[in-house]
Amino acid sequence: MKQAILIVLDSVGVGYAPDAAAFGDEGSNTLGHIREAVRGFAIPNLDRAGLRAAEMLASGDDASAGLSLSWGCMTELSAGKDTTAGHWEIAGAPVSVPFATFEKFPESLVSEMETAAGVTFIGNYPQSGTVILDELGKEHLQTGNPILYTSADSVIQIAAHEDILPVDRLYQICRACREIADRERIGRVIARPFAGNPGEFVRTAGRHDFSLQPSSTILDLLQDHGVESIGVGKIADIFAGAGIDSSFPTTSNQDGCETIDRLLAKKCESPRLIFVNLVDFDMLYGHRRDPSGYARALEEFDEWFGTLIGRLSHETLLAVTADHGNDPTWTGTDHTRERVPLLVYDGGPSRCLGARETFADVAASLADWFGVSQADLPGTSFL
């Protein structure tokens, strides 16, 4: 029974994209700069599979041969460098019109959201999610007013202490704002619950992304043809549940890998796609500009990845890629416009897949693998 495993290493870019200068990111290189910055860093399983070769290809160098998986890199077409645009393009729906972004939400929009949600916000400026808790967490505890903030992404982020506003109430607030965000074409409304005391606040596992509904994707197409679509991590959130049959939210990269293990241990009763997002690289280390932490997370994934390869059969397609970059040595705290790696196992000999012109080649390849017509989805199969 055919199955596919698509793993997105959130933010693991392999070098600045051809149009990076337009985003202020020329020279960024998430993985390359981690290699330079962290002494002793080693990911032997991924490099034997082709990750280092993908990096070389992304920079125009000759890639190595004799690797265990097929390798390549991909360039983003979408008008943005955010999570939503990256994942949607991977699924065959490039974002041609940029999502709305804000340095500060207009007072009229804030007032409308407050009325819809029945709250009064504090904040309303761009900031790191952990820093803003230090800046406004105490005021939130005193007033009970949720914290509103944003970033370079198209996102409304709303934070609240779980003892002040229970998670269910925070979700209600976000759902009310989501209706307004749809009209404004804002990619995500993110609930950011936290706990603890001033000076030691911690974000909890109740994060939830309320996303804009995508246009038709490979997930819908496969679902229509009897292929079960399973989301692991925040996949269901990113696609607003569209085309997803079942969802397994996770608390960490390790939890995500263990979820894959459990799914693979179960007999495959029908064709299925296991679509995985591993967010720790981006959320915990890229945005916080922590090369050492990022390196440790990659090494931990590499160790698990080494156990995966031997479990793959000729009926399993594996594709490992990323949705954007987030160079932990770069200025600021935002994503970086980079090419992303592509590692593929399809039961055949390893080969160079080249520098692909769009992330949507993944969607085209999934259609090819499961033998369904690609219809109007863009992209070219690499199989």
Q: Strand order, biggest sheet?
A: 10-9-11-1-12-13-2-14
Strand percentage lies at 15-25%
Summed up, the helix count is 13
Please tell me the overall pLDDT.
Answer: 95
Give the name of the CATH superfamily of the largest domain. Answer: Alkaline Phosphatase, subunit A
Q: What's the number of extended β-strand segments? A: 14
Secondary-structure element sequence? EHHHEHHEHEEHEEEHEHEHEHHEEEH
Categorize the overall geometry: globular
| Head-to-tail CA distance between termini | 18 Å
What's the structural blueprint in terms of helices and strands?
Elements: E1 3-9, H1 30-37, H2 44-49, H3 51-58, E2 70-74, H4 83-90, H5 107-117, E3 122-126, H6 131-143, E4 147-150, E5 155-161, H7 167-184, E6 188-195, E7 202-203, E8 208-211, H8 218-224, E9 228-232, H9 235-238, E10 246-248, H10 253-265, E11 272-278, H11 280-286, H12 291-308, E12 316-321, E13 340-345, E14 352-356, H13 361-370
Parallel strand pairs: 1-11, 1-12, 2-14, 3-4, 5-6, 9-10, 9-11
Antiparallel strand pairs: 2-13, 4-5, 6-7, 6-8, 12-13
Helix pairs in contact: 1-12, 5-7, 10-12, 11-12
Summarize the structure.
This protein is an alpha/beta fold and 383 residues long. Helices cover 34% and strands 19% of the residues.
Structure write-up:
By secondary structure, this protein is α/β, with parallel strands linked by helices. It has two domains: 3-96 and 213-370, Alkaline Phosphatase, subunit A; 107-211, Alpha-Beta Plaits (2-Layer Sandwich), CATH 3.30.70. 34% of the residues lie in helices and 19% in strands. It contains 13 helices and 14 strands. The protein has helices at 30-37, 44-49, 51-58, 83-90, 107-117, 131-143, 167-184, 218-224, 235-238, 253-265, 280-286, 291-308, 361-370, and strands at residues 3-9, 70-74, 122-126, 147-150, 155-161, 188-195, 202-203, 208-211, 228-232, 246-248, 272-278, 316-321, 340-345, 352-356. It has an eight-stranded mixed sheet, sandwiched between helices. Strands 3, 4, 5, 6, 7 and 8 form a six-stranded mixed sheet that branches. Helix 5 crosses helix 7, helix 10 (253-265) runs parallel beside helix 12 and helix 11 packs antiparallel against helix 12. The longest helix has 18 residues, at 167-184. It is globular and about 60 Å long.
